[in-house]
Amino acid sequence: MKKILLLFAISIMAQGVAAQSKSDVTNPCAAVLRDEGGLLPDTSLAMVEPSYPDGINAFYKYVSDNLEYPSSVKGNISGTVVLKFIVEKNGRVSNIEIAQSLNKAIDNECVKVLKKSPRWNAGTVGGKAARFTYCLPIEFKY
Predict the structure, then answer these.
(1) Number of domains the chain is built from
(2) Alpha-carbon distances of 37 from 28, 30, 83, 126, 127, rounded to whole Å
(3) 46-80 tens-digit pLDDT
(4) pLDDT value of residue 35
C-alpha cells in the first residue's frame, strides 16, 4: 500500500492551552455528556477535556504509524477527515462518526485506526471523570 504524508493541520483544535477561566476545554466540539444515569455534570465546575496519553502529537504519531492509505482509492486524494467521537469515563473511545468526509475508504481507515487507539485520559468535571464528545481533524496532503 502507498505510504502517504499525513499532516495534522488545525491541530491547535485539539491541543490544550493554558486556560484563563474555570475550563480547560479548548476543542471546539468538546462537550460534557450525560452520565449513565442521564444526569448532566455541573458544568459550572472546572472542566478538563480528554487527552491522549503523552499528548496530541503522540496521537498524531500513532495515526501516522498505523494508518494505511487504502489501495482501493485511485489517485492521490488530498483533504481533511474530521472524526467526532466520545471519550468515555474510562478513557475508551466510542460512537465514532465522520463529521467531515473525504472519501469512504479513507474515512473507514481513519475510524479503524481510532477504534484501535490506546485509552485516552478521561475528561473531568470538578475533578471527576466525565464523558466528553471530541473532534480531531486528519489531513491528507500530497
Answers:
(1) 1
(2) 26, 20, 26, 18, 19
(3) 788 899 999 989 999 999 999 988 888 887 888 99
(4) 66
Please choose, from the candidates 5, 107, 23, 12, the residue with its C-alpha nearest in 3D space to the C-alpha of residue 56.
12
Residue 1 domain flag: no
Q: What pLDDT score does 20 carry?
A: 27
78, part of any domain? yes
CA neighbor of 36 nearest in space, from 130, 124, 101, 137: 130
Give residue 78's identity as a one-letter amino acid code: S
CB 8 within 8 A of CB 60: yes
Look at residue 58 and tell me if it is in a domain. Answer: yes
Q: 11 by DSSP, 3-state: which?
A: helix
Cα–Cα distance, 134 to 95 (Å, whole number): 11
What domain range includes position 98? Answer: 6-140
The C-alpha atoms of residue 15 and residue 81 are separated, in whole angstroms, by 17
Query: 106: buried, middle or exposed (CB in 10 Å: 19+, 13-18, 0-12)?
Result: buried
Evaluate whether residue 48 is within a structural domain.
yes
